[in-house]
Structures are given as C-alpha cells and as structure tokens.
Design goal:
single chain; mainly alpha; Cytochrome Bc1 Complex, Chain D, domain 2; 2 domains; two-stranded antiparallel sheet; 8 strands
Amino acid sequence: MRVGDRPMRCLVLTVLVAAIASMPSVAQVGERTAPLRGLDEYVQVPESNPLTPAKVTLGRRLFFDPLLSADRTISCASCHHPELAFSDTTARSRGVRGQETTRNVPSILNRAYGASFFWDGRARSLEEAVVQPIENPREMALPLSILLDRLRQDSAYRHLFGEVFRDSVTGPNVARSLASYLRVLRSGDSPADRYMAGERSALSVEAARGLEVFFGKANCVACHAGPLFTDESFHNTGVSPADTGRGLVTHRAEDRGAFKVPSLRNVAMTAPYMHDGSIATLDSVVEFYDHGGGLSGRSDPELRPLRLTNEEKRELLAFLRSLTASSFVHQP
C-alpha cells in the first residue's frame, strides 16, 4: 500500500493500533461508557463515588457557578472554556481580583482516564484535584468552609445535594459531584481515530504522512503514547527552569523542572502551549522540539534535534490537527 508517492509504513499503524488495543481494561473497577472511537469503553471510577446522572448534573451546575469563587465573579468554566476543549486562550488565566495564576490551563477533557493531575501531578485523583482551584488564593480563593455555608444557605443547592447524598452538603460531596462531571467529559472520534479504525479517507495524504513522522523520525510517541497521546509521565523539556515543577512535589533533584506530558487530543484548540504558556502556536512547538527542546542543563535525555525537513514539519502539523474532534461527549 502507498500513501501518495511514498510507501506507507504499515508497521507504524500496526504498533499504534496495538498500543490502543492493549490499554488495560478497568471493567472490574469502572463504569461503562458509550463507545467512542479511540478511547477505552470503560473509565475508572472510585467505589466511593459511583457515577449517577443526578450527581453529574449537580457537578455541572457547580462547574459553571461563580458562587464557587470568593467574589462570585469566576467559575471553573471561566478558565476551562468548553468551546476551547475546556482550556483557555491566555498563557496564564486570571483568578479573583485579576490575580494571575502560576501555570497555563490544561484541557480537562478525558481526565477520567488520567493517572496524574495538574502539571506537577500533586493530586492523586479527580476528587482531590477539583477542590484545589477553589481554595487556591490565586484562583477562586474561597475557603471550603465558606463555600459549604453558601451552598447550605441556597435552597436549590440544599435540595439538589439532598437528592444525591444522604448527608447532603459536605466538602467530600462537593468534590464527588465535580469529579463526576469531569468524568463524563470525553473527546474521541477524531479524523485520526477514524483513520486508524480503517477509514482511510478520514485523513489527507499530508496528515497520513504526518502520522509516520509522529511515530517514526520525530519519535513523539516516546512521551505522547496511548489513547490519550500521553503516557502521563513527567519530563523536563527545558522550559522556564525557574519553575521546579514535579520536584516541588517529590523533593527529588531529578524531578526539578519536570512537568506532566499533556494529552495531544484537540491540541490545535489549546494554544498557547507548555506549562507556562510560553509558546504561542503549534508551529512554534514543532520548531521547539525540532531544535531539541529548551536545551537547559536538566533537559530530558529523550530530547535531541530532530532535523525535520519543512515538508515533514507540515505533515506532522497536519496530523496533530487531525486529533481535533468535531464535538465533545457528555456521557453520564
């Protein structure tokens, strides 16, 4: 088989399909979801927080409610915009009273499949992660005790929490509701997914060649592997070495400046890039890695100059753009 005038490397596609198919099923500890090409049919759900439609509805209401911020001016959606794949357009978003946050806002789509949370991996679960921005003084700046008072004084919220939870409004129940909503935010069935499922017309010739570059010469798959195009691990790419990143959590010298590998799904919609938002365009990201990353003294050993041709860069960009889904699925 040939793609355009170049032989198609069938091994590349075979390896990719095998990697997706071999992702461990969590049927024994998870919830089944509507099939979505490219994603596992099961999502991990804690036994202490089973998914229910009512809980998801409550979590959605909380996610979009500015009542969760100290001055009632911003909600979770103020930084995680649905139309931007639940990311933001600025290098660093603004919290209450215009305060600048410390890192770029990542997309929260498909976090139900995540193994680590936040750029530095400081949260071990969605339940732990969702309440941190609420109390963070540079983000929503609202102590949880005050949030609980507000919710208990609101008759609608008292009713909703009472319907979902036996003990009504509590901190853990706020976390369970928000985490449940995030678990149903899924994105798959992109042109790349359809192509890898056998629909050869789903990708342009240029994007199909870009798939070869991604898994071949550029070796992006060394870090951006699996159904989410991330191995959920931490690497130092030489960006803003003053930020200690993962090292602040583990206190290990080898983790200084390391950050979590972000998912590449919908990556064309989530500019600017890197944990500090310092790279404005996807084209510039490709150039950054083509030159071997930031080349700081602590850069990951995987980084090296790629020496891609201009044609290969265009092909790689076409493939990355093919990871954009036409819609996002909210599936209780």
